[in-house]
Specification:
The model has no long low-confidence stretch (mean pLDDT about 90). The protein starts with a helix and ends with a helix. Helices cover about 50% and strands about 10% of the residues. The longest helix is centred in the middle third of the chain and has 29 residues. The strands form two sheets. Strands 1, 2, 3, 4, 5, 6 and 7 form a seven-stranded mixed beta sheet that branches. The protein has 15 helices and nine strands. Among the domains are: about 110 residues, no CATH class; about 160 residues, no CATH class.
């Protein structure tokens, strides 16, 4: 037994509450278990109990053993002056306390403890893999939106921090977020730092020349540091060195990764696509905040990379002919991981509710993403209907399943609740 599980059992009253007796053998009725306290002081506040026909309202403290009260020195802490009940797993020591003690050891169904141990030790894709399909979708609907909202809010917090550093330049911020999405899960952070090192005003100055935009991005990324045999990389390297000196550009300390990925996802290809995309759409990226239709978003990708990339995946390495067009999957990735989070963040930071609603609606109207996490859930017969569902599954996996955070999970709650009956 650990204190987190014991607090959980108390919070949701997952024990036999019939004919409760304190360790002093007084009758006890729990009216309200109290509100969980995440700050200093007792574990639960505003609890309400009846002992021997007297109603008590106050704090409730949880410990694995009664002796922990003495061990933690609570008797000398004024924060604990309002305690009305001491709830323990094991009553191992008689203390002269001005309130009763309740021992739960004999009152909690063994199945709950076994289930908790099983979830903690599970090495499956998700700990509750064998139970999740018994959970009704209706039970998760509200929690799903809360999880996705929290996921977007976490991104908004990071964006707000960055905005505080760049004097609330939203256009620069949008540029950086789009760049991160082009980098994908492997090179996203590097692309973000790359975009951060390039003032978007510089992109606007040269938006009519894709090769110049590409020279800036490739040069800042360190992909033009070599000596080249082919004409095109030699030319844009020369141009980059001129622009670097003219605009006093400082190259970010980043390392782009090529290993274990398909050539079409090479950072050199993604930077070529980003160069073409941003050169064509530089003057309109602010309008992405008002985007409300995925089909309209696809119109922004009616552009082509420089012809050099038709038969290259890397500089100075010729390959078979292949147009480096953006596929629907990549466009969906940009929408879900760049545009919609930016809409939400703008609404959250600027207190414009319509942008938050727009972002959540867009997720509901956009088809689900395809990635390893979503694929594994689908193998468990959990099929996302839209991007809201797929974002929920990603958040569930990363913030709950991977951390074995079952005690704070609605699915875990439903499983424990079923075992307490």
């Amino acid at each position: 037994m650990n204190e987190n599980l014991l607090q959980y059992i108390w919070q949701f009253q997952l024990f036999n509450k019939m004919n409760l007796l304190t360790t002093e053998l007084n009758n006890l009725i729990v009216i309200q278990p109290g509100n969980k306290n995440d700050n200093q002081g007792p574990d639960f506040l505003n609890g309400k109990i009846i002992i021997a026909n007297t109603t008590w309202i106050g704090s409730i403290e949880i410990h694995v053993k009664t002796s922990d009260w003495k061990l933690h020195g609570h008797s000398n802490d004024n924060n604990y002056n309002n305690v009305i009940l001491h709830v323990v797993w094991e009553h191992d020591l008689e203390l002269d306390l001005p309130f009763p003690t309740l021992e739960l050891k004999s009152l909690v169904p063994k199945l709950i403890l076994q289930k908790y141990e099983m979830l903690l030790r599970s090495k499956q894709f998700i700990p509750c893999e064998k139970n999740i399909n018994f959970i009704k979708e209706l039970q998760l609907e509200k929690w799903k939106e809360n999880l996705v909202f929290n996921r977007l809010k976490r991104k908004a917090d990071l964006i707000q921090y960055e905005l505080n550093q760049n004097k609330f330049d939203w256009i620069q911020m949008i540029w950086m977020i789009i760049a991160r999405a082009f980098g994908g899960s492997i090179n996203g952070d590097a692309f973000y730092q790359l975009a951060k090192s390039i003032p978007f005003k510089l992109i606007l100055k040269h938006q009519n020349d894709i090769s110049t935009v590409e020279a800036i991005l490739m040069g800042q990324a360190g992909l033009l540091d070599n000596e080249f045999e082919e004409v095109y990389p030699t030319q844009i390297k020369k141009e980059f060195l001129f622009l670097k000196h003219k605009y006093h550009l400082d190259k970010p300390r980043i390392k782009l990764l090529f290993l274990r990925m398909r050539p079409s996802n090479f950072p050199s290809v993604r930077l070529a696509q980003l160069s073409a995309f941003i050169a064509v759409n530089a003057t309109s990226i602010g309008s992405f905040l008002n985007l409300d239709n995925i089909n309209y978003f696809k119109d922004y990708f009616k552009m082509e990379t420089q012809s050099y990339w038709d038969d290259h995946f890397r500089f100075d390495e010729a390959s078979i002919f292949q147009k480096k067009k953006m596929g629907d999957r990549m466009i969906l990735h940009l929408l879900v991981n760049a545009i919609i989070p930016m809409q939400f963040s703008y609404g959250f930071i600027m207190k414009e509710e319509k942008y938050i609603s727009k972002a959540m609606d867009m997720l509901s109207e956009t088809k689900a993403e395809k990635n390893k996490i979503v694929d594994n859930f689908m193998q468990l017969n959990i099929i996302p209907k839209n991007a809201l569902d797929s974002q929920f599954l990603i958040e569930l996996k990363n913030e709950y399943c991977n951390l074995k955070n079952c005690l704070n999970c609605q699915i875990g709650y439903a499983i424990f609740k079923s075992e307490s009956k």
